[in-house]
Amino acid sequence: MPTLFRFLFICALIVGVIYGTMVALVTFVDPVERDVTIRIPSERVNKTP
Fold first, then answer.
1. How far apart are CA 19 and CA 12, in angstroms?
2. What pTM does this model have?
3. How many CB atoms lie within 10 A of CB 23?
4. pLDDT one-digit tens code per residue, 28-43
């Protein structure tokens, strides 16, 4: 039974580290906004039957 507790503790520790990293990324990293221009060929827009 101690190996089960050790396994669950290690899994909880790994999940906690991943969760803490995600919280730190959300808190400290700001996304950079930029304009995006996508050129669409006129053949795709003006389809003739």
1. 10
2. 0.58
3. 10
4. 999 899 999 988 887 7
